[in-house]
Amino acid sequence: MSRQAAQLAELLLEQVRSAGVVKLEELSREPRGALQADSSIQVTWVPAERLPPACSIAATYDSSTSPASIAVAEDASFGRRRFSLLHEYGHHLCNQVFAVLEELFAHPRAAELEEKVCDAFASRVLVPEAARELAFSDGVTARAVVDLMEACSASAQAVAVAAAESMSEPGYVVLLNPAGAAEFAARSGGVFPARRGAPQAGLLKRAAAGAVVRGVAHLDLGGGSTTRELNIESAVAQTCVVAVMVDGPAPWMQFSAGRTAYSAPNDGWCDNCTAAFTTYQAACDSCGDLKCPTCGACGCGCKAIAGERRCTGCFIVQPPRAYESATASRCRDCD
Fold first, then answer.
1. Are 293 and 277 in contact (CB under 8 A)?
2. Which helix (H) or strand (E) holds 16?
3. Most buried of 61, 79, 118, 305, CB within 10 angstroms?
């Protein structure tokens, strides 16, 4: 989770406190009941098939209605419904806080940043700071994540986001289903998002089957993209398997077994969008230059494919053939 997203999420929390319409304690305990006090929003339960299938959030927000509306999947788990409802309420609050709107308007990837902000807001409501500090006092391990899931009433997604925000290195906290797919992947640092339902292989597939693993593995992001090798540890929870993946020394490592070198952030300059940047991503295989995290450009022409663009659903840069039409903003996998 980026520092900017965390700071903006705090502004949303302050908006809830200062407005006094909804009590934060009640919002944490029972979001749907608490939101009945806010006349600017209406919450409805809908069949899951009415929501985007590849989305990790089991709800949608519509600001075009009066009042604005949030539709939540009625057959999602209790914890996932709560997290999803708070995530969408975060979108509603973003429209009410001018400082947040300013930051989003100025950001080159506003939609992606807003999703991170809403994840962080939902997680902060459900998992207070004191609980995070106690759970991860010795670092973020898979066992610590599972223990926090069992100790609080927050959803697995909320705890995963809290864990990712507490990580000192870039990486992921992944929730795996029994089929070996990533149901949800909370991010730490400037790593790329993973699409919900992306099938995994190797150690992650073994972990999803219930094996407790430690080692080095790639995370499949979906759409043919994978991460570099990351240190991984897994633990089994009641509703899922948790895998913590770290690009750097991990809390469970007493000594450096496996990888001996870890990535440090690199500073670069993008000639395409004329901006300085810091990135953990690998350099381009063709030209050796760092890829700009904003536009994806590097020192060669491999980026200049007519029609190539970032999908607003999975946030992966896709070729033209991945879209239904030249004007489509979401790829076929997300629609």
1. yes
2. helix 3-19
3. 118
User: In this structure, what is the dihedral angle of CA atoms 178, 180, 183, 186, given to the nearest 10 degrees?
Assistant: 120
Characterize the bridge pairing of strands 241-246 and 230-236: antiparallel
The helix/strand/coil state of 200 is coil
153-195: pLDDT as tens digits? 888 999 999 999 999 999 999 999 999 999 999 999 888 888 8
Q: Which amino acid is at 33?
A: G
Q: Point out the residues of the chain with pLDDT beneath 70.
A: 1-2, 52-56, 254-267, 271-275, 278-288, 293-295, 299-307
Q: Which residue has the tokens 């903003």?
A: 329
**3-state SS record for 40-79:** CEEEEEECHHHCCCCCCCCEEEECCCCCEEEEEECCCCHH
Calculate the dihedral angle through the C-alpha atoms of 193, 174, 240, 9, rounding to the nearest 10 degrees.
-70
Contacts of the segment 159-163: beta carbons below 8 A, 24+ positions apart: 159/123, 159/127, 160/184, 160/185, 160/186, 160/242, 161/1, 161/119, 161/120, 161/122, 161/123, 161/127, 161/186, 162/123, 162/124, 162/127, 162/131, 162/132, 162/135, 163/136, 163/244
SS3 content of the chain, % helix, strand, coil (to 5): 35, 20, 45
Q: 61, 88 in Cβ contact below 8 A?
A: yes
